Each structure stands twice: as C-alpha cells, then as structure tokens.
Task: structure prediction
Amino acid sequence: MMRVSTPGEGECIVRLSVIGCGYLGAVHAAAMASIGHEVVGIDLDPRKIDALSRGEAPFFEPGLPEILTEGVESGRLSFTTDIAAAEGAAVHFVGVGTPQQQDGHAADMSHVNAAFESLLPHVRPGDIVAGKSTVPVGTAAVLAPLVEAVGATLAWNPEFLREGWAVQDTIDPDRLVAGVPATAGGERAAAVLREVYHPAVAKGTPFMITDYATAELVKVAANAFLATKISFINAMAEIAEVTGADVTQLADAIGHDVRIGRRFLGAGIGFGGGCLPKDIRAFAARAEELGRGESVNFLREVDAINLRRRDRAVQLVIDALGGSVFGKKVAVLGAAFKPFSDDVRDSPALDVAVRLNGLGANVVVTDPQAIDNARRLHPQLTYEPSRDESIRDADAVVMVTEWDEYRRDLTPEHASTLTAGRVVVDGRNGFDAAAWRAAGWIYYGMGRP
Ligand code: UGA
Result:
C-alpha cells in the first residue's frame, strides 16, 4: 500500500504512527483508524499496550471501546511497545504527557524529549512528525532541526479534546491548527495533515496553518482562557457569598450576552484534571523565562482563586455540621475531576474528600467510574460504589462531581429515605436548591444564598 493513497473521492488512507497511548494518544490512534487510516499506537507501558491490543480502553472514555474494537478487528489499528513499528508511517504523531515538574511549575519535558530521541532513527526522509503534546512555546523550534536532519518535516498540531468527549472532539473538532515551517516541506506537511483530517476538512472545519510559536501558543492560550473564565465566575461567587447574591443567576444573566457566553461559567469547587491546572502554571513559568512574566501574572491569581474554592467547600461542610466534622459521616458524591471521566489527576472533588477525612470526618466517597484510580492515590479513604449505600446514615451529602447519577437523578425525597441528616453541600451548583429546601433539607451552594 502507498503511504498516502486516495481510494475514493475525498477519502484518503494515510499510514500513521502515534507515539504515547495515554488519554490523548490512545484516543487519537483509535479515532484516526475509525476514519479509515492505518494506525500503529506505540507506548512504553506493556499493560496499556496489552489492553489496547485487545480492544480495551485502559481508562474510561465514552465511545472509545467501540472504535478501539472496530479498529483492532478491522486490522487498521494495532499497538506495540516497539518503536521500530513507526517505520513506514507517513505521519508520526507524538502525544506523550507533559506533566508538571516535581519541584516547580514548569512542564516536565522528559517524555517529549525521549519520544523524539527514540522515534527519529525510524523516521524516513519525506515523513512528517506532528507534535501534539502541550509544550512550552519555543519547543518546536528546538526540535525541528533534529527532525530535518533525517529529511523529515516537523509540524506542531495541538489537540483540544476534552475528556469525556474526546472521541467526538478528535473526529469532529471545532478547529484544527498546524504550525509548520515556511518551506516547501512545511507546505507539504500542511497538505498531508489536511488529508489525515479529511472528514473534518470536508465539512469545512476551520484549519489554521500557522508558524510553530503560534500553534504552540494557541493551545496554552485556549486553556488559560478557559481557566480564567472559570476563576472569574468563582471570584464572583466569592463576592456573592458576602452580598447574598446568587452566582448562578449572575452567570445566566451575563452569559446571555453573546460576547460573554454561558459556557465555562459554572461556579463551584473549580477546575482540576491533567490539563488546565498544570498548563496555566507551565505557561506562567515559560513567560517568566521569556522575560514576560508580568504578561500572564494574572494566571497566578486564576490558580489561587481556583484553589480557594476547595477551602470554601470544606468550610461550608464544617459550618453546615455545626462547626466540626469530627466523627460525622460525610458522603462525598464524585471523585473524578469532572463527569464522564475516571481521571482523578488534581481532582478538586478528591481533594475536598481528603481534607474532610483529615479533619476527622468519616468520609465515604462514591463515583461511577473513578473509584479504582482514587483508591490508588488515597487508600486512606473509604470507597463505596453504590450511590445509595454511600449516603446511607450520612450526616451530610457533599456533591463534588456533577455526574447525572447525582445531579439529575438523586432526588431529595429519595435521599431523605437513606441519610441521617438533612444537610446537602452542592460543590457544583448542580442541584435544584429550591427542590432540596422544599423537601426539608438545609442546602448550601457555592456562591449562592
Ligand atoms: C481541557 C480543555 O477544555 C480542552 O479543550 C483541552 O484540550 C484539554 O483541557 C487539554 O488540554 O487536554 P479537560 O481537562 O478534559 O479539557 O476538562 P474541561 O472540560 O476543560 O474541565 C476542566 C475542569 O474545569 C473540570 O474540573 C471541570 O469540572 C471544571 N469546570 C468546567 C468548572 O469548574 N466550571 C465550568 O464551567 C467548566
């Protein structure tokens, strides 16, 4: 088979390798196979590769098991720990993690550097290496000469997928961005990436071709904006708390202004996960290195507001239980950093649970998907898979991840048949406060009277 072939009108099959099979890479590999490409996913972790090779997702992501199974069964999708398998692919996507450094705020680039080092001996002249990892601006300019030395071209192609919607976001994104050099190789790289993303391109999805620095910055700027929007509304929640205003009504009212928009104005215990928190910190650290720390100094404030909301939630539970949680049974609904995910990295929900436990509460955590991951991180907590068992005899119910099972399906009438107390702390402003109060509960929201 040709490495780039055109079997039918507007439909291309490209041979791809995807280096790194975490949340980003595994979804990318499976999604690319689902739109017809021949894909090999490569990762150092044999357990991950074994699972993926059986068509099993190593983490919870709606829609992923289906396209994995379909891809593996069709023969278009395979996984291996052997980096040599990248040989023969026309485009090599690098989607390894860039976590926060152990001892600082900057991004840990060791996985990206190792991935390029191991991949490049298997890259052939004319190939395209497409970086997808979220990296400090300036990274591509450093890596490009190494890629060019083997006759290939580097493109920077950031990813904007949200966990929980990752498959849809990969196949049908809002926009595509590729940073390429201003050379014939760069032009060709952009054209090949258009073929790779053919269904989105055919649909008219905006595809922006930029230089490297712009592409890298688009990614961190988008996450910085989203984090800022969330912290903005949480700052308003702090003001609402001392004035008696209701931040959810405030968000509805300002959100009607199309220039502002209602999305990401959900006040509560704030943002977490493997992206927004570490990305804003890495961005601030990088700006500092560039001598422009002051330009994004507000991101430190965004981070601080965000972390204060966790303190606020803990304080609300203490107040709600009469000044102390010691010896009280507190049911914590949710451990994942958001619904439709089993990811507990920097999860505000789990953080609140851990702090309440540290204050002597008898905390019982439930979550539809994230219990195993949460237990690995915090084995000291008690976990209960059943929502109803978790709230049985509880003195307070604390909702911190707005899964439908809690926000939509748990009625105050039903909860009343199970709990000991009638105190509910809504860390995500997801419950209908009036309905809980009407059913005899004392309701506490975040930034709500
Ligand atoms: C985020 C971005 O939304 C993606 O576009 C980006 O590609 C991704 O990071 C990444 O860099 O890989 P994700 O981390 O999956 O995606 O989660 P979000 O949906 O952005 O939610 C982040 C956090 O913000 C969650 O803890 C969520 O509960 C919180 N949040 C979200 C709020 O507190 N309020 C809101 O109104 C919205």
The mean pLDDT is 96. The domain at 3-210 is CATH 3.40.50.720 (Rossmann fold). The chain has two domains: 3-210, 226-445.
